[in-house]
Amino acid sequence: MAAAARAPPTAAARVGLLYDERMCAHATPDGEDHPEKPDRLRSIWRKLNAEGVASRYGLSLASARRLRVPLLDSRCVALKAKEAKDKYIASVHSQTHIKLMKDISSKKYDSSRDKIARKFNSIYFNKGSSESALLAAGSVIEVAEKVASGELNSAIALVRPPGHHAEHGEAMGFCLFNNVAVAASYLLNERPDLGIKKILIVDWDVHHGNGTQKMFYKDPRVLFFSVHRFDYGTFYPAEGDASHCFIGEEAGKGYNINVPWEHGKCGDADYIAAWDHVLLPVAEAFDPDIVLVSAGFDAGLNDFSAYLHGILQLLGFAQGRIVMALEGGYNLRSIANSVFACAKVLLGDKFTFTSPEMQPFESTWRVIQAVMLYASSGSESDIEDVDELYGTVSSVDVTQAAGDVLGERLLKMKLDEDNLAMKSISSGSSAEQLPSDSVEEHSKASVVASKRIVDLSFTWRSVSSRIYVWYASFGSNMWKPRFLCYIQGGKRGRNKLFVCFDLGQADGMNIPCCGSRDPSPPSETMWKAVPHRLLFGRASTPCWGTGGVAFLNPEINYNEKSYICMYKITYVSCNYIYMLLILEFKQSGIVLGGPDLIRLSLFNRLEQFNDVLFQENRLVLEDGKDGNIESPDSPLIGSSEVEFMATNKALHLEPIKDSWYSNVLYLGKEDDLPILTMTCPSSDIEKYTSGELPLAPPSKTYAATLIRGLVEGKQLDAVEAAGYINSAAARVL
Ligand SMILES: [Zn+2]
């Protein structure tokens, strides 16, 4: 049954608290400000001391002072850090990685340390990094061992650098060693005597614990549960594997659970919903021997209800054996208050839990349902068939899969018009800033509420399917690294939350590309020649500077032969979850079905072709509000556009008619998939012909990129390629 029925530890709980100033030695090399700074630990420590976490004798702060009980001697059991032994770290990290992390602070790296740091994603090193990293990993081992052995009931390890982004052979996202993973592996593999056979890792840092997930992806002894911001794969670390579809592999299948938020507005209510409807039933079924919490406090929650509620629930499992290890959290006051609040819960202090005023977002219920369906299906392939989605709407009974309560909550949510109104006011955002699903669903809800409903049933399904297209490039995108900038983001990483990093993908970039929302590389590359004339106009681009811009004459001319490099990418990717509503108005006889359901099902799309189109036409604004990337709301190319083009060969996109690449051209089919490219409209060709627009032959650097593409693509050798480009540039139109 629910955790409410379980008794939390009594007030006499022995709670370990590990703090060690030595972990503050890891800092930026030249003292520049950085979110992951030593003061994070100090601010928490100061807070816990100032509050005394009451005294060891259970006295109030005032009484403790009166009786001169030293405040530092808190109710928690103070622990000191210990360095992790290599062999323990080696169970989750490569030897090369361990060696580098151990040596990076030594003298021999004095001149190269910064350069090495820059090779990683969001990493810095200084002379204290090695020791801090070893202590952080060792400290989590230390507390986990004491909790596992029963010496302590629970413990909090105040450690840094954090760990959950660190991968087997790589430091990333401020993390050097994966502290929690090292400790979990230690308990399972080094200390069988402690009897820990199953470990639940709860990662509530706002970022996905990519490292931890990978380390135990095939291991059924570790159930990794991560709730994090996902934003359709664009939020750090922006790897697709943070989605709910990643449920583990082989023996570990079903032991990896991601609850990926669609947007950054999720708050306490949403987290609590995730605990109640996913974490709790899952933990119940898994029945762990110990719970390790990757406790990041960077979710920006308004109060601590979600953390406290989470801890309280978890205390109901594994006889309350909980180990909390600090991960992220960069607001000094907020992390100090959050850790303090969690410590009090572990200590058994009474606290009244007030339900947050806000209701979970509609998308939260949808995400939770998808997670539960995946978790219960245990098979991705079962639900991957998009034809099935279009063909039928009767599918999995969600209410059964996700629990009756959830079904009821969702039903209530749908019918309660006030919910969303209240949410949009209290979150301080206007309705149009809400994710579109909420708004759309809300209008649906109004329809429902305005009629008398006899029966309302929900059927939904989750799909992870992609619809592909060949994007044909004839200009500098023929060189793959250049093209990849539009998919994976160029020059600077796409993840602005953290320090910018250089992907170094393509030289000559003036303005960084933001990449596609779906950063998966093209699944295939293929070359072809087409009967269209290649020409060069426009002397410079905002993105790439001076050099000439390639176009393909939309008119077919069988005397011409231009090379195209085709990348297989998506133009629709229902990479997410869609709820299909079946509204049966039995009394009035109204049945919504067919097209209505399909329209609803395509709310969320990740489409690479459209993202390339946006970027080529500079329709994507970077550094928008909140430092996020802003792109147009709706895709320009969808199924009906592709259908139109198959007959009409070209489509001039009215909404972007003044942009250079506003004309999408249909170049036939390959493997039964349409080949599309983007070029100038015919009206521009007329202007080039008449001289109203000047032609602009490629500059040396631009020509070099074109040649590189053709040579690396094995179409022509360097001399032939130069000849091909020169001839296209020299001939009159
Ligand atoms: Zn984080």
From TrEMBL:
Transmembrane stretches, start-end: none
GO biological process, one term: epigenetic regulation of gene expression
Every Histone deacetylase domain range: 34-345
Xref: InterPro entries: HDACs, His_deacetylse_dom, His_deacetylse_dom_sf, Ureohydrolase_dom_sf
Signal peptide location: none
Highest taxon of source: Eukaryota
CC per GO annotation: cytoplasm; histone deacetylase complex
UniProt GO molecular function: histone deacetylase activity
Cofactor dependency: Zn(2+)
PANTHER family membership: HISTONE DEACETYLASE 18-RELATED (PTHR10625:SF25), HISTONE DEACETYLASE HDAC1-RELATED (PTHR10625)
Name listed for the protein in its UniProt record: Histone deacetylase domain-containing protein
